[in-house]
Amino acid sequence: MPHVERGMVVGLFGGSFNPPHPGHLLVAEIALRRLGLDQLWWLVTPGNPLKNQKELAPLAERLAACEALAGDPRIKVTAFEKTLGTSYTARTLEFIRSRNPHVHFIWIMGADNLAGFHRWQRWQKIATTFPIAVIDRPGSTLAYLSSKMARTFDFARIDEDDAGVLWQKRAPAWTFIHGPRSTLSSSALRAAANKS
Residues in domain Cytidyltransferase-like (predicted)? Predict the structure, then answer.
């Protein structure tokens, strides 16, 4: 787990990153800027229970690719979930909170994950552990209106103009951040690689 200091504001950006691409980096850069983060942890998961594990590149390969892409020293690439022995976000967030009680965390996710967020194990627990920032992705802009998560926690949504103080809010609290979007996706990149 990356080193943090008391009072820091840290974004948690999890995923399989199979492979990581400039669209992931754009989400990270928007989160760093709009949320006023001191660090952003790029949590490379050992596996994703909702995705085909046969398509998953080895963890070491994905970690190296994330490190090569990240660039910004505030982005900390980690795969500590492997040591923790879980692929479930709810458990990971509970562990992070227990180890870092004096740090302000925000869960970061691309809007493309919002539509299926209610299929994640203990998704409501995730939403009540840390504030959530949803970053716009192509084709997913309306997800913040129609998704089950958005409807369930509509009362907890704050205006994106207040994204810089999201870390001060007690979960559940979330915002949807519009901005530049990349059309790149890991699944499209894998499909293109398989054709060549």
Answer: 12-191
Between strands 75-78 and 174-177, the pairing is unpaired
Domain assignment present for residue 3? The answer is no
Letter for the amino acid at 165?
V
C-alpha gyration radius of the chain:
16
**Structural domain total, the chain:** 1
Q: Where are the alpha helices (DSSP H) in the chain?
A: 22-35, 59-70, 80-84, 89-99, 123-127, 143-146, 148-152, 186-195
Once rounded to an integer, what is the mean pLDDT over residues 53-74?
Answer: 92
86-103 confidence digits (pLDDT tens): 878 999 999 999 999 999
> Domain for residue 52, yes or no?
yes
| Distance of alpha carbon 180 from alpha carbon 123, whole angstroms | 27
Exposed e or buried b per residue across 104-120, where buried means at least 16 C-beta atoms within 10 angstroms of its C-beta:
bbbbbbbbbbbbebeeb
Residue 93 belongs to domain with CATH number: 3.40.50.620
Does pLDDT of 175 surpass 50?
yes
pLDDT > 80? residue 140: no
Q: For the purposes of burial, counting CB atoms within 10 Å of the CB of 20, is it exposed (0-12), middle (13-18) or buried (19 or more)?
A: buried
DSSP symbol at 183: -
- Per residue in 99-126, pLDDT (tens digit) is 999 999 999 998 888 888 999 999 999 9
Asked if 58 contacts 90 with a C-beta cutoff of 8 angstroms, the reply is no
pLDDT at position 190 is 43
